[in-house]
């Protein structure tokens, strides 16, 4: 039976494990051709000419297209339309697409791409956000290198630091991070006889994709149909066009044949989106008793050559720059800057992951300076319902950071930390560190966070959920079936899912922002309740009841409890026309009602009002001979309201911590003049199962009254804490501050051996 | 199009070589396929040698020599009782090589012929003084492994010749014999070595080192041995002071590069530091082991 609150096995588990499940990458329609892209191979250059004739002349080549063949604006982008489908006047990063080839086979495609000669006049590049703001910096766009300057201010702003008896100050840097999903960017597109472009694509936002394609290619968005099956991972990297506009352009030029495009791993690295690197200048002030009083920070975000969601990522980061704490006076400044680096965009943690490192590190600094216990300092300043956050927005929804910290404080990893530290073996040092984090849910103001659920009783008597929001692996569709089964009392054999398809399902927003289960789930609950009422009403007709009372749903039937008579769902399903077997309902996420008079630079997103919270503790062992850091033990305490599926909850926590450990210790994109030197999994180091600790996970189950069955989204919050917790633990172990990520063994070793690192450019530890 | 041959015997293999002198040999393919995908190699023909009985199996020969067929997979080596009993140093190196699927495909012969300074089996084989057996149609010859590898990716293998087996003498004097291997990588699996150390010590009951054989991976163009460092240990008690002197000698001897995994300075520091771990496995802190 599908009960909410129980670890119902995932509906997709069997088909995914056996390989039956068909991802977009498994789609090979009859008669398809291959599409592929010629990329710049230089970070910044003027395009003088593109020689396509030899490629066109190659047997098996169907079309070679350049910017001259792009019919519309040739501009894609979610908020700022600044990214060409095919570069025209210049290339702005190594992976910029210059030409699109359609060919009969992959081999011919590769050969044709190698025959295209792009005549480029190199331009000086800029590869650092702060340097890009200097007056003489090379211009990535003629309009200048500043995409967006933002400011959030509360209370007296920066001036309040003058009133603080204690001020701590530090600079932090966080790196690129690759999404590293298993299924790389791919899809298939074709043109129907009526001119409609159909696309089956690995995308987090099929409904929005239509508009992005339409704008770039100058076609009617309603003549585009996009469908997305399960994704083999997304993490934000498929939120926004990857292959979509290129595929649609290919479909317009393939003579009606389907065109398949699938980036290989190296192309995914070079052309795909990344987490924004950020340099963060922090000053935090407090009163002698540890009460936080003022925060000033300046944040420089490297968005690469195109906006993607750079402004929105920065907005969310700035909104979280004060952490889960009560800070009455804040001044948070941010610059989102164009460079010739790879394109930065959405990624799990969406700006929050970056600032979490800075605010938790300055909290540690403050605790040290005050001589205060770091946990006590956090609990003392932790946001409680009714408090205003660092933007001046009142917390009116469930606010569980203090319960998370209290649960952490009761756990043996915290209470026994001194003993554990003392028992380090030869050549080992141990330390523990904690981090308290939060993550907003939903789009924030300016962009209604809505979903529309459709649920149908099929003629066979099954419950069919039409899901308009993608499941990229996080398990939201499983939660949807569980919700439908719970309300309509059906087991897993009687519920089925229709994947997002702009032709069959209703717009329900992107799979992102910790919103999918919350927003779509709320819409679905309403639709299922309506269907239930309808089924009762129709059953009353069958059973000649005076009124639809005394009825209950049972597996496969509606039962009249006083008489024990049943009407099978299959009978009900066959008795009414489709229009009468369907219920559609919608939901819009609540927004902040006390919008503060700040953050005016953000057209969408500011502010948010619903947050999930987490407190983590990392216990690390540092090897004195090699500098190697091993995360030995780890606890994640997560507050995300009530839990619909405990196993799904655990999977999200585990995945987020694993990805966060990679971000903290391993994942380093190595760049030279805008070129990625390690665009593969041999040298871009992701953690394996042998690199991850046994993980304890505790759920602090508050109730979020607006959430479906009281839940909130927790897919993102867990990635924000591992880096600060591990950095803090390393500092505890080696006695040197860690202000830059990823934290390499080489830097830890040099910190241990008491020597300054000659070249500290690759990140790590400062003494 | 590419020819792929799967000879079932050595005579069949020699016929393949005669017909296709440029054929690449594939033992497990874990290096060859990677090189082909990245277009570093594009052989016209491939001769898969893993079905040839003469190249397979792990056997003990007269005089106690252990013969490991060149096509023995890493997985077979780590689970072989004789290897586990006599050469824990090799087991330790191989059990962390790649990942389970790679260990099931990759072979010791392939690891040797790839001749990477980062090859995980090489430091223990150097320390053990491994001998290799080479075969071609007309002849058979033997030489020390350290004489076979001449540079990164370079060996003395002649055209038409293959590596048939690796031969190991049993380590002498089991009492207090220390067999130690440690690899430093960027993670705990699927990691290319940044530096590694294989150390074989004979330590007397009074703690004095009688014999020492040391070999390092990834710190020089080929696996590094260092008689100077060994001399610092022999005849001396195994103390941190002794080891520090040996470490200094080893750093003198090494010539590491900076690459995407680590820089030269880190490798120089760590290759010496790794010797200090011998204190942990020394008789004072660990009970005498009977291999």
What are the SSEs and their pairings?
The complex is a heterodimer of chains A (767) and B (291).
Chain A: H1 13-18, E1 33-39, E2 45-51, H2 53-57, E3 61-65, E4 90-91, E5 97-103, H3 106-115, E6 117-122, H4 129-132, E7 146-154, E8 166-174, E9 177-178, E10 186-191, E11 197-201, H5 206-217, E12 224-227, H6 244-252, E13 259-262, H7 265-271, E14 274-275, E15 278-286, E16 292-304, H8 310-319, E17 329-338, H9 352-370, H10 374-381, H11 401-410, H12 412-415, H13 417-422, E18 428-440, E19 450-457, E20 463-466, H14 476-488, E21 495-498, H15 516-542, E22 551-554, E23 557-560, E24 565-568, H16 569-575, E25 582-588, E26 611-623, E27 629-639, H17 646-665, E28 671-672, E29 675-676, E30 694-699, H18 722-734, E31 737-738, H19 745-752, E32 765-766
Parallel strand pairs in A: 1-13, 11-12, 16-17, 20-21, 27-30
Antiparallel strand pairs in A: 1-5, 2-4, 2-6, 3-5, 7-17, 8-15, 9-14, 10-11, 10-13, 15-16, 18-26, 19-20, 19-25, 22-23, 23-24, 26-27, 28-29, 31-32
Helix pairs in contact in A: 5-6, 8-9, 9-18, 14-15, 17-18
Chain B: E1 3-5, H1 10-19, E2 24-26, H2 32-37, E3 45-48, E4 58-60, E5 66-69, H3 74-79, H4 81-86, H5 88-95, H6 100-105, H7 108-114, H8 122-127, E6 131-135, E7 140-144, H9 145-148, E8 149-151, E9 154-155, E10 162-168, E11 177-184, E12 195-203, E13 209-217, E14 224-225, H10 227-233, H11 240-253, H12 264-276, H13 278-281
Parallel strand pairs in B: 1-3, 2-3
Antiparallel strand pairs in B: 4-5, 5-10, 6-7, 6-10, 8-9, 11-12, 12-13, 13-14
């Amino acid at each position: 039976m599908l009960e909410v609150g129980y670890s119902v096995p995932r509906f997709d588990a069997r088909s995914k494990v056996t390989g039956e499940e068909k991802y977009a990458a498994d789609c090979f329609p009859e008669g398809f051709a291959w599409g592929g892209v010629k990329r710049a191979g230089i970070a910044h250059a003027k395009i003088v000419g593109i020689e396509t004739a030899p490629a066109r002349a190659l047997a098996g080549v169907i079309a070679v297209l350049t910017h001259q063949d792009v019919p519309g604006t040739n501009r894609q982008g979610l908020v700022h339309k600044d990214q060409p489908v095919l570069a025209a006047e210049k290339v702005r990063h190594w992976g910029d697409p210059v030409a699109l080839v359609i060919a009969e086979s992959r081999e011919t495609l590769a050969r044709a791409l190698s025959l295209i000669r792009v005549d480029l006049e190199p331009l000086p590049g800029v590869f650092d956000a702060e340097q890009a703001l200097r007056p003489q910096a090379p211009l990535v766009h003629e309009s200048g290198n500043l995409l967006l300057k933002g400011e959030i201010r509360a209370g007296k702003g920066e001036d309040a630091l003058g009133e603080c008896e204690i001020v701590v100050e530090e600079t932090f840097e966080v790196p690129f991070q690759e999404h590293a999903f298993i299924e790389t960017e791919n899809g298939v597109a074709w043109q129907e006889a009526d001119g409609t472009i159909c696309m089956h694509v690995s995308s987090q936002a099929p409904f929005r994709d239509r508009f992005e394609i339409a704008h770039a290619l100058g076609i009617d968005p309603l003549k585009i149909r996009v469908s997305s099956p399960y994704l083999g991972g997304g993490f934000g990297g498929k939120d926004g066009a990857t292959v979509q506009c290129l595929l649609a352009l290919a479909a317009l030029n393939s003579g009606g044949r389907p065109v398949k495009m699938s980036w290989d791993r190296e192309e995914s690295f070079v052309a795909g989106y990344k987490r924004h690197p950020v340099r963060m200048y922090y000053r935090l002030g407090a009163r002698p008793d540890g009460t936080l009083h003022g925060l000033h920070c300046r944040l420089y975000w490297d968005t690469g050559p195109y906006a993607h969601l750079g402004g929105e990522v920065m907005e969310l980061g700035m909104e979280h720059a004060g952490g889960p704490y009560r800070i009455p006076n804040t001044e948070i400044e941010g610059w989102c800057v164009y460079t010739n680096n790879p394109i930065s965009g959405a990624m799990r943690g969406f700006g929050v992951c970056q600032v979490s490192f800075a605010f938790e590190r300055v909290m540690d600094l403050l605790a040290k300076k005050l001589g205060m216990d770091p946990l006590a300092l956090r609990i003392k300043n932790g946001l409680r319902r009714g408090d205003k956050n660092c933007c001046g927005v009142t917390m009116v929804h469930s606010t569980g950071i203090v319960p998370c910290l209290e649960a952490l404080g009761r756990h043996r990893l915290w209470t026994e930390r001194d003993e554990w530290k003392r028992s380090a073996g030869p050549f080992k040092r141990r330390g523990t560190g904690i981090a308290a984090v939060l993550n907003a849910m939903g789009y924030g103001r300016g962009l209604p966070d809505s979903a529309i659920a459709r649920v149908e009783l099929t003629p066979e008597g099954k419950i069919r959920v039409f899901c308009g929001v993608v499941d990229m692996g996080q398990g939201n569709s499983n939660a949807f079936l569980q919700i439908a089964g719970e309300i309509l009392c059906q087991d897993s054999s009687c519920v089925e899912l229709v994947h997002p398809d702009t032709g069959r399902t209703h717009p329900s927003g992107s799979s992102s922002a910790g919103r999918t289960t919350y927003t779509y789930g709320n819409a679905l609950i309403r639709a299922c309740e309506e269907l239930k009422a309808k089924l009762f009403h129709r059953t009353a007709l069958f059973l000649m009841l005076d009124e639809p009372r005394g009825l209950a749903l049972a597996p496969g039937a509606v039962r009249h409890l006083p008489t024990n008579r049943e009407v099978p769902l299959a009978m009900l399903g066959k008795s009414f026309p489709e229009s009468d077997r369907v219920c559609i309902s919608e939901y819009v996420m609540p927004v902040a009602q006390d919008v503060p008079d700040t953050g005016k630079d953000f057209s969408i997103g500011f502010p948010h009002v619903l947050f999930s919270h987490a407190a983590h503790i990392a216990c690390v062992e540092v090897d004195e001979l090699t500098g190697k850091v091993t995360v030995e033990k780890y606890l994640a305490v997560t507050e995300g309201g009530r839990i619909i599926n405990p196993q799904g909850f655990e999977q999200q926590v585990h995945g987020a911590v694993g990805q966060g450990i990679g971000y903290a210790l391993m994942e380093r994109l190595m760049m030279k003049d805008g070129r990625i030197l390690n665009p593969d999994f041999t040298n871009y180091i992701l953690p394996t199962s042998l690199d991850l600790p046994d993980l304890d996970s505790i759920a602090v189950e508050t109730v979020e009254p607006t959430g479906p069955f009281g839940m909130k989204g927790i897919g993102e919050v867990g990635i924000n804490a591992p880096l600060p917790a591990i950095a803090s633990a390393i500092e505890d172990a080696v006695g040197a501050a860690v202000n830059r990520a990823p934290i390499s063994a080489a830097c830890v070793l040099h910190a241990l051996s008491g020597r300054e690192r000659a070249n500290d450019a690759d990140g790590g530890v400062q003494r | 199009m590419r020819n792929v041959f799967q000879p079932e015997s050595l005579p069949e293999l020699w016929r393949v070589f005669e017909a296709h002198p440029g054929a690449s040999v594939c033992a497990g393919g874990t290096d060859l396929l990677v090189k082909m995908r990245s277009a570093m190699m594009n052989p016209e023909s491939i001769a898969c040698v893993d079905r040839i009985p003469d190249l397979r199996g792990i056997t003990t020969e007269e005089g106690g020599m252990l013969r490991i067929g060149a096509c023995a997979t890493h997985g077979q080596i780590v689970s072989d009782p004789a290897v586990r009993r006599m050469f824990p140093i090799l087991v330790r190196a191989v059990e962390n090589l790649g990942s389970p699927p790679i260990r099931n495909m990759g072979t010791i012969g392939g690891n040797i012929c790839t001749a990477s300074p980062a090859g995980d089996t090489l430091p223990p084989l150097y320390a053990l003084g491994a001998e290799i057996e080479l075969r071609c149609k007309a002849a058979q010859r033997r030489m020390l492994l350290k004489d076979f590898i001449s540079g990164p990716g370079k060996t003395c293998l002649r055209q038409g010749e293959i590596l048939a087996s690796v031969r190991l003498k049993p380590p002498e004097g089991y009492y207090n014999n220390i067999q130690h291997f440690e690899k430093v990588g960027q993670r705990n699996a699927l990691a290319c070595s940044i530096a590694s150390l294989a150390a074989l010590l004979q330590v007397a009951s009074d703690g004095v080192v009688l014999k020492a054989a040391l070999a390092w991976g990834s710190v020089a163009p080929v696996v590094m041995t260092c008689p100077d460092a060994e001399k610092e240990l022999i005849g001396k008690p195994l103390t941190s002071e002794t080891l520090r002197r040996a470490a200094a000698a080893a750093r003198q001897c090494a010539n590491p590069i900076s690459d995407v995994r680590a820089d030269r300075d880190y490798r120089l520091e760590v290759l010496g530091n790794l010797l200090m771990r011998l204190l942990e496995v020394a008789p004072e802190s660990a009970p005498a082991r009977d291999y």
